Amino acid sequence: MGLLKDKVALITGAGGGIGRGVAHSFAREGAAVVIAEINEETGTQVARELEELGGRALFVRTDVMQKASVTGAIDAAVAHFGGLDILVNNAFVPTPNVRLEDKTDEMLEQTLTSTIKASWWAMQASLPHMRARGGGKIVNFYSIDVEIGAWLHADYNTAKGGIVGLTRSAAAEWGRFNITVNAVAPTAMGATFNKLAAENPGFAERSAAMRPLGRCGDPELDIGPVVVFLASDMSRYVTGEMLHVDGGLHLPGYNSRPADVPVREY
């Protein structure tokens, strides 16, 4: 307990799934948590949950598609809690799962904006506040989908690949400010997982069997502690890293080709 005592953290997309799990983990470790979430109902609910745990929390309605909204959330965090120590860029706006040739420019722009641009905006806006505190911690979200070239996610894979470049660039340049910048590639039982499990009988069991550890991750118990590590002084000498938090799924990978797509098409 207390690994993040007296720290102020902002987590985008913390109204559910992995973001909510990370928020809970942060609160249990003593951080004041800003839930930067577009959904007012879920955002305020998570804030209440953290307060019931004895933590300090603030919901700020945030649209990661809009620069002013992202930078406004940073400003709100500083105004309410007096500073900012930790930034977790988790949110993104998904697009339909269609093949690369069917992805539109609008889909690409939406994914690039909600992923790379939103992280870029939040990081730049956080920088002066972290410098004022003598350092800071930034954790970005990467994905195994980039490594396997996951089908139907071409725009997402492109954006998450860009997150690697952004993370490493910031780690290299901002180390001089005592700011560490790392990324995690998590898989867990978040909103998307639960939806797929409800729609496809046996999905959860098949998903667990793909992982060397033989189970699916819990957002709070499995993903949250790793992000806590990267946000705490335990990782003071770790920067520019891409860390898989997936029960070993990255070792075998997985086949994402839809069953209805032939091997050859002319």
From TrEMBL:
InterPro entries: NAD(P)-bd_dom_sf, Sc_DH/Rdtase_CS, SDR_fam. Pfam families: adh_short_C2. It comes from the Bacteria. Belongs to the short-chain dehydrogenases/reductases (SDR) family. This is SDR family oxidoreductase. It comes from Aromatoleum evansii.
